[in-house]
Amino acid sequence: MIQYDAIYLKIRDAIVAQQLEPGVRLPEDKLAERFNVSRTAIRKVLQRLAIENFITIQPNKGAEVRTPTATEAQEVFDSRVLIETNLLPTIIANWQPSDAKNLSTIIALEDKAKAENDFAATIKYTALFHIELAKIANNHTLSQFVEQLAFRSSLTIAVFGTKHSVGCDCGSHAELVSLLDNGEEESAMKWMTHHLKVIQNSLVSDSDNKAVDFNSLFH
């Protein structure tokens, strides 16, 4: 199971980081060869990724990275607005000074990625910020749900996003940390709603399919 989990995380992270773009085929034989496991083992990993909506598996066609529809993209962000905004009162109730420090570390990595125009890394750290923030609420079920939505958002942004999707228009996460640190619940909830809505409204339809060298990718 540990080996399955490691392979799952490598493939999922490659999807989130846009190293495996939407529409890219995921052949069982090539992945099994690369990871030195059986096709049965790879099939289990792909089935898990399919359940979590990262890939699709079609009979006689195999697996490929999921290409979300415009409707799905809107639904994902509508769900995030509903859940993440309403988690903030609980997050504030559980807030510790160390939380600000931990989140600021992620913000620094996010800012560095933005400064280097590394779109994929910016998406990665943006998602990580929201995932770690949700954990502060100390509700495992909801934090898991936020994690899945954040990763699905990364896939959505990979398909429909632009630099505006992770740019200054949606605000700096440091602003939210400051509000949480000061216990400003109402302002924090307004900030989160605005933040996610700006990203949602920045999405456009544009994607290409590319071939992938799995040996080079998963070195």
Automatic annotation (TrEMBL):
Alphabetical list of CDD domains matching this protein: WHTH_GntR
InterPro entries: GntR_C (IPR011711), TF_FadR/GntR_C (IPR008920), Tscrpt_reg_HTH_GntR (IPR000524), WH-like_DNA-bd_sf (IPR036388), WH_DNA-bd_sf (IPR036390)
SUPFAM superfamilies for this protein: GntR ligand-binding domain-like, Winged helix' DNA-binding domain
UniProt KW keywords: DNA-binding, Transcription, Transcription regulation
Domain of life (superkingdom): Bacteria
Domain HTH gntR-type: 1-68
KW NAD (keyword) present: no
Protein name as catalogued: GntR family transcriptional regulator
Species this chain originates from: Photobacterium pectinilyticum
Origin organism lineage: Bacteria, Pseudomonadati, Pseudomonadota, Gammaproteobacteria, Vibrionales
